[in-house]
Amino acid sequence: MTIVTERPGTPAVSKPRALRISWVRAAPWLYTIGLFLIWELLVIALQMPQTILPAPSRIFQAIVQYWSPIWKNSLQTLFTTTLGFGLAVVGGLAIGLFIGWSKTIYAGLYPLMIGFNAIPKVAVVPILVIWFGIGTIPAVITAFLISFFPIVVNVATGLATIEPETEDVLRALGARKIDIMLKVGVPRSMPYFFGSLKIAITLAFVGSVLSETVAANYGLGNMMSSAQSQFNVPLVFAGLLMLAVEGIAMYALMAWIERRMTGWAHRSTMAH
């Protein structure tokens, strides 16, 4: 087998594996370009009106044409989403540690958390408008409410599923409850916690746009709602495309943080 050495001090990588890695890295771009090409051809072949389904080329034209409002509203949505997500990280981690501290607390509060999460957040937005008015605050709170549950569940699960044998051994060695949680429970829950961030950030965007559509004067949700009322469908799809870009970027950031912070938990998969 031919071996290619990249530089001194780094592991040698075989040509087939290097080629495979290159294809894996290029796959998202190739699939995205392919999707847009198929979309464009289908719209042309079916002669689809742009008020029903605009072609990607028309959507990109709308992005260029309305770039200033799209950029401003994108920043607003990113701000509300990031702020709500940040609150969800802090609150979800704290509540998850509290619920996972004791199996009794876990059994008592977990059903309440499920019941709260089952409430459609669109039904909560009007209440937030009554309390805080129309604007940024309802969007931030909605992003928080819809994204903190996965963080709570994953952290609490990581703590509550410590093996009884492990606890018995540590107690026999003189460890206290807080020692077990800090030295075993918290490190054990960290892969769950950082993994949940990827889910929570996408849900935070859903919450922000939901609130912006109903109760805001700015943001991509408000922009798309206004464009819809004017039958400006290309602008609606432009807003959706910007949301997709922001969501992918934030998801990639969370995935990078997960790899950096919990790479030790994924060493078996990273070796392949």
Automatic annotation (TrEMBL):
Family annotation (CDD domains): TM_PBP2
InterPro entries, sorted: MetI-like (IPR000515), MetI-like_sf (IPR035906)
Q: What is its main location?
A: membrane
Q: How does it sit in the membrane?
A: Multi-pass membrane protein
Keyword terms: Cell membrane, Membrane, Transmembrane, Transmembrane helix, Transport
Which superkingdom? Bacteria
Every copy of the ABC transmembrane type-1 domain together lies at: 74-254
Mind telling me which residue stretches traverse the membrane in this protein?
Answer: 29-48, 78-100, 112-134, 140-162, 191-211, 231-257
State whether keyword Membrane applies: yes
Q: Where is the protein found, in the record's own terms?
A: Cell membrane
Member of which family? Belongs to the binding-protein-dependent transport system permease family.
Name of the featured protein = NitT/TauT family transport system permease protein
- Its source organism is Pseudorhizobium tarimense
